[in-house]
Design goal:
Strand order of the largest sheet: 3-2-1-14-13-12-11
Oligomer: single chain
Structural class: alpha+beta
CATH topology of the largest domain: Beta-lactamase
Radius of gyration: 21 Å
Number of domains: 2
Number of helices: 9
Distance between the termini: 6 Å
CATH architecture of the largest domain: 3-Layer(aba) Sandwich
Shape: globular
Number of strands: 14
CATH class of the largest domain: Alpha Beta
CATH superfamily of the largest domain: DD-peptidase/beta-lactamase superfamily
C-alpha cells in the first residue's frame, strides 16, 4: 500500500476514489442515541480513511451536571493507550542507536541483576526491554496482589526511579521471563525507567522529545509533566442502577513524580491521529522520516506470546500469514484507537466514561465505522496486499 499524504483534511472534505463521500448520518445517530440512553457521557471521535479525515466530531457532555458539551479536541487521560505511545518513543530512541530492545533490563538497571521468582528460585536470565513492552517479562500482572502500585499510597510523591528500584527488591517475578503472557503495567514502568537511563532525561521529557515534539503532538503529556493540560473532562461510570454517575478524579500528581507509565498520558484525537498516521505511512510524518520503515515493520511484528505486536498494540485481526490486519488499544478511562491496514482505516474514540462499563458501546462503534467506510468486499475479491 503506497503511503498517502499524512494531512488532516477539513471535516468531511472527502471524495473517495471513484465514489461519493459516504453518508455518515447513521454514525451521528448512533452516538446521539448512546448519549441519550446513558451508555456513555460524552466523547470525541476522529476517523481517517485512505489518509484523509472523514469524521471529526464530539458527542455528549464533558460535564453532565452542567450540560457542558464535550469539546471536539478535548485532552483526556488516554489510560492504557499510554503503553504503545511510550513504546513508539522507545523505538524512536532505538532508531537513533540509544537503546537495544533485545538487551536485558539489567544492562541499564543493575538492581535487576539478581532476581527471584515468588517460589524463591533464581531467575535464569533477566527480562528484556522487548519482553516488558509485550507483557512477557514474568513481572506480576495488574490483577495480582500489588499489581497496581500507581493506586498505592507508598508511590505518592516518589520518583519513577524510586518506585522501580522497589519493584526490583520487593516484587519477585511470577514466571521465568519469556515463558508466560501476563498484562503488566509494572513492566511498562520498568521500560520507562530504562528509557530514562538510556536517554539521560526524565520520562516526561523523554515522551515529549522522542514522540510528541517530532510528531507535532502539542497536547500530549504525562500527567506529572508541568506542561500538561488542565481542566480535563469529568470522569464517569455506570452505577448499580444503570445510570451514569461521576467518578473520583485521578489522583493529582506533583511535577516530576511517579504516575503509571502505562496509564497516565494525556492526549487528544488530532495528536493521536498524527501518531497513527505515522505508522500507517511507514514511519513518515509530513514527508519526513520519524522512524525507518524497517523499524515500523519490527514494531508491527507479532510477539512470541500473547496477542500483541512488539510496540504494544493488541492484534485484533490477523491475516492468514500471521501478520496483523487490525491493531488497536483501549484504556480503562474509556478510550479506543485502532488501525485497520486492510481497509486503510484509522479510528480514535476518546471518552472519560469507565472503560469496563462501555465495552459494548466501543465495540459497536468500531463496527459502525468499519461498515460505513469499508463494507465487506464482494465474494472472490482478492485480499489486499500487506502494507509495506
Amino acid at each position: 500500500m503506497k503511503p498517502l499524504p499524512a494531512t488532516l483534511a477539513p471535516l468531511l472534505a472527502l471524495t473517495l476514489a471513484g465514489a461519493a463521500a459516504p453518508d455518515l448520518a447513521p454514525l451521528r445517530g448512533f452516538l446521539a442515541d448512546s448519549v441519550a440512553q446513558q451508555r456513555v457521557a460524552g466523547g470525541s471521535l476522529l476517523v481517517i480513511h485512505k489518509g484523509e479525515t472523514v469524521f471529526r466530531e464530539s458527542f455528549g457532555f464533558s460535564d453532565l451536571e452542567k450540560k457542558t458539551p464535550f469539546p471536539r479536541d478535548a485532552p483526556v487521560i488516554v489510560a492504557s493507550i499510554s503503553k504503545p505511545l511510550l513504546a513508539t518513543a522507545i523505538f524512536h530512541l532505538a532508531g537513533a542507536g540509544g537503546i537495544d530492545p533485545a538487551a536485558p533490563v539489567s544492562s541499564h538497571l543493575p538492581e535487576f541483576s539478581d532476581l527471584k521468582l515468588e517460589s524463591g528460585a533464581a531467575v535464569q536470565s533477566p527480562p528484556t526491554l522487548q519482553q516488558l513492552l509485550t507483557h512477557s517479562s514474568g513481572l506480576r500482572n495488574d490483577t495480582a496482589p500489588g499489581g497496581r502500585p500507581w493506586l498505592a499510597s507508598w508511590t505518592r510523591d516518589k520518583s519513577l526511579a524510586d518506585v522501580v528500584a522497589r519493584y526490583a527488591g520487593e516484587f519477585p517475578l511470577k514466571a521465568q521471563p519469556g515463558t508466560r503472557y501476563a498484562y503488566s503495567g509494572i513492566g511498562t514502568d520498568v521500560a520507562a525507567r530504562i528509557a530514562e537511563v538510556a536517554s539521560g532525561i526524565p520520562r516526561d521529557k523523554f515522551l515529549r522529545e522522542h514522540l510528541a515534539i517530532p510528531l507535532d503532538m502539542a497536547h500530549t503529556f504525562y500527567r506529572s509533566d508541568p506542561g500538561r493540560p488542565e481542566n480535563l473532562p469529568k470522569p464517569y461510570h455506570i452505577d448499580s442502577d444503570g445510570k451514569l454517575a461521576a467518578s473520583s478524579p485521578a489522583r493529582a500528581a506533583a511535577p516530576g513524580t511517579y504516575t503509571s507509565s502505562g496509564g497516565s498520558v494525556i492526549s487528544t484525537t488530532p495528536d493521536l491521529a498524527n501518531w497513527l498516521l505515522m505508522i500507517r505511512n511507514h514511519g513518515r510524518h509530513h514527508g519526513k522520516s520519524f522512524l525507518a520503515e524497517e523499524a515500523v515493520r519490527q514494531m508491527l511484528t507479532p510477539a512470541p506470546l500473547g496477542k500483541h505486536v512488539r510496540c504494544g498494540f493488541f492484534i485484533r485481526k490477523s491475516r492468514p500469514d500471521g501478520s496483523p490486519a487490525v491493531i488497536g488499544h483501549t484504556g480503562s478511562s474509556g478510550t479506543n484507537c485502532w488501525l485497520d491496514f486492510d481497509h486503510d482505516l484509522i479510528g480514535i474514540m476518546l471518552t472519560q466514561t469507565k472503560g469496563n462499563d462501555i465495552t459494548k458501546f466501543r465495540v459497536e462503534l468500531e463496527k459502525h465505522v468499519t461498515s460505513l467506510l469499508a463494507p465487506p468486499a464482494p465474494a472472490n475479491t482478492p485480499a489486499p496486499l500487506p502494507a509495506r
